[in-house]
C-alpha cells in the first residue's frame, strides 16, 4: 500500500503566511459575490425589458450614407448572409417589415412599431427574452433595400449596431436576400472577432430561413 503523501512536507506550503491564504480566500469570495450581484442585476434588467425600456441606454446611430465603410472597417464584427427564397420581392419585403419578423426564434418575441409608417425615420422595438432594442429605419427603398440602426437598448454594452437587407429578384420569380449585420461593443470594440464570421453565418442563415414559412 502506497503511503499517502503529506502535503505539509512541501516547503511551498510551509512558507505561505496564513494571513496571505486568508486574504486570498476573502478576495475569491468577494469576487464571487460581485459576479453574482452583477448577473442578478442583468437578469433583473432583462426581466423588465419591454418597449419602454429599449431607450434606457443610448446606442450610437450609424449614418446611412456611410454604410459600406461601417460594415467593412468600423464595425467590430460584420458578416453577410445570402439566401434565395421562392417568393417575390414584395412578399419578402412585407415579411421583413412585419411585427412577427424573427419571432420564430426561441428568444425573440417580435417587433413593436411606434406607428404604421414604414419609411425613413420610423422606429420599432425588437423584443426578446434577454433585452429590448430600439431600431430606426435609415434607408428604405421599397422592395429593394431596408437598413435600420439600433439607437437604444435595455441593457448596457452596445456601442453601435446596424443591419441591411438587400432584395434582388431572380429569374424564377423568387428573391435573393442579402442580410448584412454589424455591431461594436462599448468596451472591447478593438477585438479582432471578424474571424468568427464563417462560424456564425450558418446560424444566421438558419434564422433567416424562417421566412420561408412566414410568407
TrEMBL record:
Name of the protein this chain belongs to: Polyketide cyclase / dehydrase and lipid transport
- Which organism does this record belong to? Segniliparus rugosus (strain ATCC BAA-974 / DSM 45345 / CCUG 50838 / CIP 108380 / JCM 13579 / CDC 945)
Domain of life, per lineage: Bacteria
- Transmembrane segments annotated in the record for this chain: 20-47
Question: Which Pfam families does the UniProt record give?
Answer: Polyketide_cyc2
Q: Which residues constitute the signal peptide according to the record?
A: none
Q: Which UniProt keywords apply?
A: Membrane, Transmembrane, Transmembrane helix
Amino acid at each position: 500500500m502506497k503511503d499517502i503523501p503529506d502535503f505539509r512536507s512541501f516547503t511551498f506550503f510551509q512558507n505561505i503566511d496564513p494571513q496571505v491564504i486568508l486574504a486570498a480566500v476573502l478576495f475569491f469570495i468577494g469576487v464571487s459575490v460581485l459576479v453574482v450581484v452583477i448577473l442578478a442585476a442583468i437578469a433583473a434588467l432583462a426581466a423588465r425589458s419591454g418597449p419602454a425600456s429599449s431607450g434606457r441606454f443610448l446606442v450610437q446611430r450609424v449614418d446611412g450614407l456611410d454604410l459600406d465603410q461601417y460594415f467593412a472597417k468600423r464595425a467590430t464584427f460584420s458578416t453577410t448572409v445570402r439566401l434565395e427564397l421562392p417568393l417575390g420581392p414584395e412578399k419578402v419585403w412585407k415579411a421583413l417589415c412585419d411585427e412577427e419578423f424573427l419571432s420564430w426564434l426561441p428568444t425573440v418575441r417580435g417587433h413593436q412599431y411606434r406607428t404604421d409608417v414604414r419609411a425613413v425615420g420610423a422606429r420599432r422595438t425588437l423584443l426578446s427574452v434577454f433585452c429590448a432594442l430600439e431600431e430606426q429605419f435609415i434607408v428604405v427603398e421599397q422592395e429593394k433595400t431596408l437598413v435600420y440602426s439600433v439607437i437604444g437598448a435595455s441593457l448596457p454594452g452596445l456601442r453601435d449596431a446596424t443591419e441591411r437587407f438587400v432584395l434582388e429578384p431572380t429569374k424564377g420569380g423568387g428573391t435573393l436576400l442579402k442580410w448584412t449585420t454589424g455591431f461594436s461593443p462599448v468596451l472591447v470594440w478593438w477585438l479582432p472577432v471578424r474571424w468568427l464570421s464563417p462560424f456564425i453565418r450558418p446560424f444566421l442563415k438558419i434564422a433567416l430561413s424562417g421566412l420561408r414559412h412566414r410568407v
